[in-house]
Design brief:
single chain, 351 residues, alpha/beta, DNA polymerase, domain 1, TIM Barrel, 2 domains, 6-stranded parallel sheet, 13 helices, 44% helix, globular, binds zinc ion
Length: 351
Amino acid sequence: MVALLTPLEAPVEPTEALRRIAFLLERNRAGTYRVEAFRNAVKALKEIGDDELEERVEAGTLQEIHGIGKSTSAVVEEAARGELPAYLESLQDKSGGPLASGGEDLYAALRGDCHLHSDWSDGGSPIDEMVLTGIELGHEWMVLTDHSPQLRVANGLTVERLTKQLAIVDAINRGVGEAFRLFKGIEVDILDDGALDQTDAMLAQLDLVTASVHSKLRMNSAPMTKRMVAAVLNPRVNVLGHCTGRLVEGSRGKRPQSDFDARAVFEACLEGDTAVEINSRPERQDPPDELIELALEIGCLFSIDSDAHAPGQLDMKAYGCERAERLGVPWDRIVTTWDADRLHAWANPSR
Ligand SMILES: [Zn+2]
Ligand SMILES: [Zn+2]
């Protein structure tokens, strides 16, 4: 993976300038509303085409287009004049540097991501924009893991919608060529009894399954342990997502870790060949250090994931890498350093 995108210089296409601004805002955790202005402006420009764009820049009527406002029209006009837009320049200077210090070599060795969302569930961008940004960052593969039906607040996908999404994933793979693969996946809810929130027939069609607890996080330790053990032993499950459910900072506030017998859960992960996710989101930092150390001692595999809900957040894996390197996780036990074929063979032993 590339550690840092090369800063853009003039001349730059207006849509490229807007995309890069959105990317930089997202990786630096700007609010969705601020980022959306730039993402929507890209959409608006794609609809009007080059000739109309030129005419409107000339006439100063860009802001008449739905989806283009004051700050976005300034960026477009500057780019159209052949300048580096001032807003982009200041973002590149102020927040274009590395997200984490430490773990850079591991970050460079990552090839994929087992946990990310598109606007089909609660992500902010379409699948193709996630893929395009992923390729720019040097990913060789990514698993698209939108939410499962129970998570209605996150617009979880029913069997019907996920079936439609799989056809789109096929089409994207036909379009991107050999150097990149988008795998079919899901972030499936682990139900109260440890069952999975999707039909087995549907799960069987996927390349990789990340399973996470999103409900009843305050369950007592014994039933929570039983619930998680059942899920990670399920042969359909490949990655255990953000295992403690904790939130350590950020706009959603703080949330303590769920109570469970971590040793029992990680031993089950080892037995079921399920990787323990190192969730890179700064508000999660999940699992905490001592649990990564425990999983390491038990012999588990790990998956350093972004849990990105926007393209720029794919870069947050830098935080997970800093933690994994500091805690001495061997690279070969991190499935996201594996190439696409090895990852696929591991996740689909019977295929
Ligand atoms: Zn989740
Ligand atoms: Zn997620």
